[in-house]
């Protein structure tokens, strides 16, 4: 049984669901649009995790799950307080299970591993440690250092370093950039937080 | 000795630790990251930071104490409202990388999910305890449709703080619980850890743990300050 968590109408989730069905693999949906009708329980039994999830009278034992594909949207927008609390608790239940599910359960991806996406420089170091080449990168809010790096490399890429607002662009004098007002103006910089610039690899 | 303390402006315990360390402490709230001078490069020794009186190199630091789970939008009121969430996420991402592999001890090192240690759920602490042969209360997390959810964990009867292998028991707890707490802290890679047990008896079972010992407690503050001084002594110069 494969757990699918997200919104069924979303294109990627729909494609995954389609392929799983085409291969005759049973699925169980945690449909975020149906959160109000979902119940669940998670408990530790010595050093193992157990529990169940139920939707529309269909209860699945978490021990039956052999895999999971997680692609949730932020929960609870426009909801009542009870709905918000319920959604947050359900999110936490699924995330906790996904983190501690037995190693033989293929979870794509476990939250702790997925969270490496939320810091690109930290992720870069992991990539580098496995022998991949990565371009020279500087993350700074020091205008002089940023300008010197740009001068040294000629062409550089500016990008955000967290997992939100994926801003990636060749740095030019003309256009203004994010990070709460970092704007290169004639190669002088104003930054309200450290931002990343990366040399272009030839 | 120079100790960087990354903490929220409202963290009374962090302020107490900074006061105790005096001139040796740099107390850095998240908004300080908007002050020019912060740099991450792959070589940890070449990273820099900024304090009220100017910049510093990580080579000056002998220890770092982190008290933040992440940077949140309310930490950066000086940023335009529509950019706060983004800037907070960027600062978190920056600190996550900046704190990794520093040439001095970091208490506690960041994980992918938290700037201060592993930030595990009660279930994860219970599983770790069982694997170490330490009793833990069964956890149950229940979410019923259209009702208020039930959180896991039980009320703690005794809290033990571990600071660099030194055990501080502020309440009357059996000594064996201190041994258990130290084992859990070591296994989790946390120099600083607060561990809750359900009763103070020797049979006490783990309920939960977290990386935020209450520094407002004088005994805990003294132990954490000693821990920082001790680790600073061990740091390469």
Describe the structure.
The complex is a heterodimer of chains A (about 200) and B (about 240). Chain A is of the alpha/beta class and about 200 residues long. Chain A is about 30% helix and about 25% strand. In chain A, the strands form three sheets. Chain A has a four-stranded parallel β-sheet, covered by helices on one side. A four-stranded antiparallel β-sheet of chain A has the order 8-11-9-10, covered by helices on one side. The longest helix of chain A has 20 residues, at about 80-100. Chain A starts with a strand and ends with a strand. The relative contact order of chain A is 0.11. Chain B has about 240 residues and is an alpha/beta fold. Helices cover about 30% and strands about 20% of the residues of chain B. Chain B contains five helices and twelve strands. Chain B is globular, with a radius of gyration of 19 Å. Chains A and B meet through strand 3, strand 4, helix 2, helix 3 and helix 4 of A and strand 3, helix 2, helix 3 and strand 8 of B. Strand 3 of chain A pairs antiparallel with strand 8 of chain B.
Q: What layout of secondary structure does this protein have?
A:
The complex is a heterodimer of chains A (202) and B (237).
Chain A: E1 2-6, H1 11-22, E2 27-31, E3 38-45, E4 48-55, E5 58-61, E6 67-70, H2 81-100, E7 106-108, H3 111-114, H4 120-129, E8 137-140, H5 143-153, E9 156-159, E10 168-170, E11 195-199
Parallel strand pairs in A: 1-2, 1-6, 6-7
Antiparallel strand pairs in A: 3-4, 4-5, 8-11, 9-10, 9-11
Chain B: E1 3-6, H1 12-21, E2 25-28, E3 39-40, E4 48-51, E5 54-57, E6 63-66, H2 84-98, E7 106-107, H3 122-131, E8 140-143, E9 158-163, E10 166-169, H4 175-188, E11 192-197, E12 206-210, H5 218-234
Parallel strand pairs in B: 1-2, 1-6, 6-7
Antiparallel strand pairs in B: 4-5, 9-10, 9-11, 11-12
Mean pLDDT of chain A: 84
What does the average pLDDT of chain B come to? 92
Structural class of chain B: alpha/beta
Largest sheet of chain B: 4 strands, parallel
Calculate Rg of chain B over CA atoms. Answer: 19 Å
Order of helices and strands of chain A: EHEEEEEHEHHEHEEE
Low-pLDDT regions of chain A: 175-190
Net shape of chain B: globular
Which structural category fits the helices and strands of chain A? alpha/beta
Shape of chain A: elongated
* Beta strands of chain B, count: 12
Instruction: List unreliable stretches of 5+ residues of chain B.
Output: none
Helicity of chain B, in percent?
Answer: 25-40%
Helix content of chain A: 25-40%
Lateral strand order in the biggest sheet of chain B: 2-1-6-7
**Could you describe the largest sheet of chain A, including whether it forms a barrel?**
4 strands, parallel
Distance between the termini of chain A: 46 Å
Q: End-to-end distance of chain B, in Å?
A: 10 Å
Rg of chain A, Cα atoms, Å:
22 Å
Instruction: Classify the beta-strand content of chain B into a percent band.
Output: 15-25%
How many extended strands of chain A?
Answer: 11
């Amino acid at each position: 049984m494969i757990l699918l968590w997200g919104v069924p109408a979303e294109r990627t989730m729909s494609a995954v669901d389609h392929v799983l069905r085409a291969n005759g693999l049973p699925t169980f949906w945690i449909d975020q649009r149906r959160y109000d009708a979902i119940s669940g329980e998670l408990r530790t039994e010595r050093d193992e995790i157990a529990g169940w999830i139920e939707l529309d009278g269909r209860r699945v034992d978490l021990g039956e799950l052999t895999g999971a594909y997680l692609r949730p949207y932020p929960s609870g927008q426009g909801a009542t307080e009870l709905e918000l609390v319920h959604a947050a608790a359900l999110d936490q239940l699924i995330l906790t299970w996904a983190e501690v599910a037995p190693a033989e359960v293929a979870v794509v991806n476990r939250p702790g591993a997925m969270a490496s996406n939320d810091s690109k420089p930290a992720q870069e170091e992991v990539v580098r440690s496995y022998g991949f080449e990565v371009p020279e990168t500087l993350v700074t809010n020091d205008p002089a250092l940023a300008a010197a790096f740009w001068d040294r490399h000629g062409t550089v890429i500016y990008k955000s370093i967290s997992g939100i607002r994926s801003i990636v662009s060749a740095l030019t004098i003309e256009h203004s950039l994010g990070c709460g007002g970092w704007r290169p103006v004639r190669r002088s910089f104003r930054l309200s937080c450290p931002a990343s610039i990366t040399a272009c690899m030839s | 000795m120079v100790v960087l303390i990354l903490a929220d402006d409202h963290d009374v315990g962090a302020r107490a630790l900074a006061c105790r360390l005096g001139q040796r402490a740099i107390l850095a709230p998240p908004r300080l990251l908007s002050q020019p001078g912060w740099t991450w490069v792959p070589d940890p020794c070449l990273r820099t930071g900024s304090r009220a009186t100017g910049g510093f190199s990580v080579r000056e630091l002998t220890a770092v104490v982190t008290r933040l789970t992440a940077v949140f939008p309310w930490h950066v009121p000086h940023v335009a409202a529509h950019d706060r969430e983004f800037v907070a996420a960027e600062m978190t991402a920056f600190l996550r990388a900046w704190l990794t592999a520093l040439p001095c001890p970091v208490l506690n090192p960041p994980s992918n999910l938290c700037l201060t240690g592993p930030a595990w759920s009660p279930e994860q602490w219970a599983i770790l305890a069982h694997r170490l042969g330490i009793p833990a209360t069964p956890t149950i997390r229940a979410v019923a449709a259209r009702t208020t959810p039930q959180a896991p964990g039980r009320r703690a009867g005794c809290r033990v703080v571990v600071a660099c292998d030194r055990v501080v028991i502020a309440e009357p707890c059996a000594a064996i619980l201190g041994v258990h707490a130290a084992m859990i802290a070591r296994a989790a890679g946390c120099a600083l850890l607060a561990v809750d047990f359900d009763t103070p008896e020797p049979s006490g079972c783990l309920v939960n743990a977290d990386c935020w010992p209450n520094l407002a407690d004088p005994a805990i503050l003294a132990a954490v300050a000693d821990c920082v001084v001790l680790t600073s002594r061990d740091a390469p110069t």
